[in-house]
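pasting for ref
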Amino acid sequence: MSTQPGKDLETFDNPHPGRDYSVRIRIPEFTCLCPKTGQPDFAVLNLEYVPDQRCVELKSLKLYIWSFRDQGAFHEDVTNRMLDKLVEACQPHFMRLTADFNVRGGIYTTVVAEHRDPTWQTPGKVELP
């Protein structure tokens, strides 16, 4: 596997496809460029998903995230494009990408994008005593 930034996402077979469980991945070093000024934007990405048959491979995810470092992108666009690519690769039951961007000009931006498979039945909430 390459150690250079890339747009390919690798997946592997879900080891427990008969169970709904969540995967949570925190990516604290996302960077891209402001398309207006060319200055760097920094964000913490939080990816949460309920896999179906495929899970995202973490090194390929890291290289994919790294590929945005020198690209100009609006926060809203880059978050939705990343989610679309991840959904295409994994075909999850549910996926949410939260991009929490650092302050720029006194303004913080958080973008939350979600995907839900329309055929998936969300499990009921469990209340423990």
